[in-house]
Fold this protein.
Amino acid sequence: MQFHIDTDNGGVVAGWLIPDNPGDTPEFIVEIPGEKPVPFRANVLRPDIRDLGLHPTGQVGFMIDDRIIDGLNERMLLTVFEAETNLPIYRRPLFDRNIGKKLLFIDIGVMPQIKMLRKLMRSFTLGYPMIERFSLETVVAIISNNYVSSLLVVGQPNWQRINGVARERGFATVALLRNPFEELAERLLFLSYLSKRPSTNAASSVFSRHMALASIVEALDHSQDKALLSAFRRLSVEQRRLLRSPMTAAIACTPDEEPQRRNVSIALDQLAQFDLVGVRDHFHAFTSLADEIIGTPVFAEVMLETLPGTGELAQKLSEIGIVADMLDEDIALHAFTREAVEAAMGLTESQRTTLSGGSS
């Protein structure tokens, strides 16, 4: 999907959108709190889009005026969605409530931090959690949205493909890394949880991207060490690809590239250009510095949530050589990053050892 907002002059909101199926005519929904949603189809012909070969007919433009929304000039709480995906493409800014900044927050993990995301999204005009749900083309369109000056993007986008656009559009960039064994443990536990619950939009989106792991998730017996080892010995190529060093993959690899040790150096070079990089082991320090970058206490009192049993399963996973090999790049990336963070915090070697539970 590609989209662009051309104008909002009070009496008219206009732009264009090319859907995922470029042969379709896009449909939209305008939502105003307390009122019935207003659907409409693209109502402006865009020969320029057609002539560029981006759409066969060019019927992709939209113009919202008083004929669609009565009294549009007075409707400040207005959001425009693409109808099929329910993706918000424009929302009128509330300058007294919204932060006038763009923030790209890389946080690797399948289980969304719902409370944190809700708090963050209330501070921005538009927010896109779990950005990895969308195609690369859609992610680029979201980041390129120059008509919105208050924008939040959270998740694990492919940084190699979007970093140039993000920097050109003036995003503040922050990343939060975590212990790779904890991330894998929580990933498996969360997918197991989703597989046993009635399908919801969020659950369907997450599980569909990890469908290849369904068999291993259902077969895993976390209480039996031998069963756990056996499950990882039977990983298919696709299953291994989905679990292989996700932090390194997101930051330093192209979508079709498998993480290797050389990508750790690339990831460190990329992270060195971020405004802030933290580790979950020192979350409070990360949130304090993030609030300084944003200029307001957006992260104040935010707490991370972890699924019960994550720590226990992570410990078991850390004792399995096959798993350590599969996470080799992320183990190195996390270790280097944590060491740099703790050095910046002025922690002594003995304090670092204590915080890491006695291991180096």
